[in-house]
Amino acid sequence: MAEAAVDRSSKSGLGPAGKPFSTFERLVAWRYLRARRKEAFISVIAGFSFVGIMLGVATLIIVMAVMNGFRTELVSRILGINGHMIVQPVDGPFTDYPGLSSKLAAVPGVKMALPLVEGQVLASAQAGGSTGALVRGARAEDLTKLKTVSDNIKSGDMVGYASGDGVLIGSRMADQLGLRVGDLITLTSPDGDITPMGVSPRIKSYKISGLFEIGMSEYDSSIIFMPLEEAQLYFNAEGLVQSIELFVDNPDDIDDLRPKVEEAAGRQIAITDWRQRNQTFFSALQVERNVMFMILTLIVLVAALNIISGLIMLVKDKGSDIAILRTMGASAGAIMRIFFMTGAAIGIVGTIAGVLLGVLVCVNIESVRQFFSWISGTVLFNPQVYFLSQLPAEMDLSETISIVVMALTLSFIATIFPAWRASKLDPVQALRYE
Fold first, then answer.
1. Are 97 and 241 within one domain?
2. pTM for the complete prediction?
3. N or C: lower Cβ tally within 10 Å for the chain?
């Protein structure tokens, strides 16, 4: 019988000519995964390893997806109101901005050219209260094309703005100053009229035509849109603009458009793109994502260490079995492959379960947020603070694949040492006291 068993095992792949994992090896590995009553403790360790890998992979997928969602939302809001490419004059002011804007807008890949006049002011209400603000003077037809603003008018409309009789302010600024549509807002600029006594601040009141809500506190509390001609008069910039902001089809292709824009301008210009203006912000986001990935990877690493401890205990418990297999003709490589498959199976199944759990939570992330809000009795990610109607989650395929590869790699590495120790077990020493 023993010889027949050896013959069958050899034909099943124990010899060098066999498959990488023979049927015999798979059967033994599967048998070791099913713990008996006396091996319950080993089974508990394997269970913790499985749960640890599953939760680690799921947590990585969920957290990275939510961070991707937040980044997409922030980028869409930042780039929705600011141009992807800012063109400024070098040899003289943009007095020919209508024609220059048309030429720049005609460049392939450019959606819109927005001439702007900007200036810092102190905004105040007649009832009291004031705050610093940035006035952006833009043509009504251009602002209508800027969907981030024109599609997010919370109250009022752009009729007064288009006629040159009103301004648009952010909803947070209106709440802070206690203003509504139809009220007057007073703007004070330090760059005023020149008098014999010096420069006097320019103070002027404007009717509020509408309130917009972009979804970023920084913009909704500090920006005022004013008709371009009125802004030129207010800031003593009649007939010229300070810059022309270009909105492009693909912000990532901004480097390819730079020479085309310079050629279309036909004059000396200085170009600043959205990456340069927001370099600190996006660098912080990237660092945060990388650090979070490294920290959460430790969860998977701890689970992989549990695989090592569980397999070492299993090897000690199965010492006599290993010795019997070796005496029946099983090679050291076969023993190593058996225990490698035993540990790797925990990592593979745990990783698959983690991916499924992560995808399930990401798809239902808003329901999960509402559930935990109900459990805790508080509003998680309050829309009044974050200006997000729902929690964003955006899974990236390449990122998910990298998480899976990382988890599997750690799991496989964790099984090598215990499997190697099992293959080096001496049958004589193992059977001496049996």
1. yes
2. 0.68
3. N
